[in-house]
Amino acid sequence: MNITVVGTGYVGLVSGTCYAESGNEVVCVDIDERRIAQLIEGKAPFYEPGLEELVRRNVKEGRLHFTTDVSYAVAQSMVSYIAVGTPMNATGAADLSAIFKAAEDIARAVTGYHIIAIKSTVPVGTNDRVREIVNRVAKHRIDVCSVPEFLKEGSAIEDFMRPDRVVIGSLSDQARAILREIHSPFVRTDNPILEMDPKSAELTKYASNAMLALRISFINDMANLCDAVGADINAVRRGLGSDRRIGSSFLFPGIGYGGSCFPKDVQALIHSASENGLDFALLAAAESVNMRQKRLIPQRVKQHFGDDLSGKVFAVWGTAFKPRTDDMREAPSLVVIEELLRAGAQCRVHDPEALENARKYFGDRVTYHKTNYEALKNADALLILTEWNEFRRPNFQRIKNELKQPVIFDGRNLYDPDLMKALEFRYYSVGRHPV
293: number of CA atoms within 13 Å, CB side? Predict the structure, then answer.
């Protein structure tokens, strides 16, 4: 199948590359000439495990192509996926201008029957609005469908190639049959292809992310209650997750969720509910809990060292919002580091992949270090903000020797409090007794 993917951001590039890997001829389109030039050379513009190797292989084997010319790409394709950004605007609504522009550009370029499949996360009703746009300008029949993505940064290739489910929202039997064929190689283990109307498909994506956000905020609030009453959140989590009706996924306490999806999608769903006269109080509460949780570490630091942190130096391990990505959008580290800087502290920052992105946020207000141990030198305490694997089994004696005093604020509960006590660290974690 000849496929066009409009947008080479996270979703578009991963999707286009995986479609090519399954044997399709794929042309990825972007307006960013530098990015396209970089991709033609086989270089991914962001970090995702395994992606760059997959891009290079499919470019070399002639299945994956990159261009800035949408007309050229669409003219030789039957299916065009729209995977452009839908950032949150000032009201919390999704900005759909890039979606509408891409749809119009595709509609003007088609040379015969065509399918536009919206892969970007969009509010319910977007499919209808796109259909109105293409019907105004297209000279050939176009079916507009919704095929939302369910990718996790850090494991996106695996998620795409072996999805829990594929969702196809379409009003056209012809489009459904073609999209089913494109996605059938990815569900050979009998995971379902779920066919539904476009509105239900649009809401399925938001509902999935909202539910996961709710679980994270719930377990974080439970962790705060454990702190208040002297319970252990790990014991509570195990008891909770052992219930088959609940399960243990996304029930790990920490310092809040971030990234490009959860914060934006929760806001967009709240906004959509409001537009339809509904008060989605449950999601609003989850969002409030998440914002409060991001301030937990600065609060703990000030409780230990005092409100005035002038002259204090802190080593920060991890700035990405999660491991195995360089993405810092809405990351808890942004809130933590800003609050420490406002209180007069200095920060020595390390992240295995996100240091260049950290520079874009903090400039020369912090120092950047290539290794985690280098960041420890002459620091008053260590702050762990991202659960990278290389942080899980560190050399504790070296940490102790490098720090001015053996104090760790662990926002991801990486270490055993009993071990920290035995090693004579002052150790603060989330929902467990400080030692």
Answer: 32
| Listed residues 146, 176, 196: the one ending a domain | 196
CA 61 to chain centre: 30
Task: Give the range of the structural domain holding residue 188, as residue numbers without chain letter.
Answer: 2-196
The residue length of the chain stands at 435
**Structure pTM?**
0.92
Calpha distance 42→386 (Å, rounded):
29
Contacts for 292 with CB less than 8 Å, ≥ 6 apart: none
Residue 433 domain flag: no
| CATH code (residue 271) | 1.10.1040.10
**Are 13 and 143 within one domain?**
yes
User: pLDDT digit of tens for each residue in the chain (435 aa)?
Assistant: 999 999 999 999 999 999 999 999 999 999 999 999 999 999 999 999 999 999 999 999 999 999 999 999 999 999 999 999 998 887 878 899 999 999 999 999 999 999 999 999 999 999 999 999 999 999 999 999 999 999 999 999 999 999 999 999 999 999 999 999 999 999 988 899 999 999 999 999 999 999 999 999 999 999 999 999 999 999 999 999 999 999 999 999 999 999 989 999 999 999 999 999 999 999 999 999 999 999 999 999 999 999 999 999 999 999 999 999 999 999 999 999 999 999 999 999 999 999 999 999 999 999 999 999 999 999 999 999 999 999 999 999 999 999 999 999 999 999 999 999 999 999 999 999 888
Residue positions annotated with a catalytic role: 261
> 307 and 177: one domain?
no
